[in-house]
Amino acid sequence: MKIRWLLYTLLCVVADTLDTFLSSVISSRTPRASDRANIIQPSDVDNLSDEEILELELEALKLHPDYSLLQLTPGTVAKYSEDRDEDISDASEANTLNLVFAETNIPVPRVRRAVLSANGSTSSFKITSKAQLSLTPGLSIRYRRRFASLSLYVAMPAN
User: Does the keyword Signal apply (predicted)?
Assistant: First the structure.
């Protein structure tokens, strides 16, 4: 039993050391969070009015039955949230995602717009093709593990 415990401890030390080494090598190639916050790529809903976005919602394809995800356009996904404030600038889910995007390297969808609708607020996200794969039920186990594994981000300082 002691040999198993020693082996487990040794594997944990090796994994932590490897994680620290790889994090320092990989993080030097990625832009800092403060630099990433200023990078905004164009989206196909940028030029639409709030009314046009609400019209798109009526015809949108529902991506997931449990999470209120709608495919507005080929590159944009919308999500209903429970924010029912009259001031759309207080949309807590959209503000939280913007904060996480700006202050960390955690991969979260970039919020493009928050629109107040009859159901509460709707946040529009620019979704990359790789992120959209995570919404499909046929995702391989390998990719599901990659999306579910947040161990690298838990210890990540906001640089």
Answer: yes
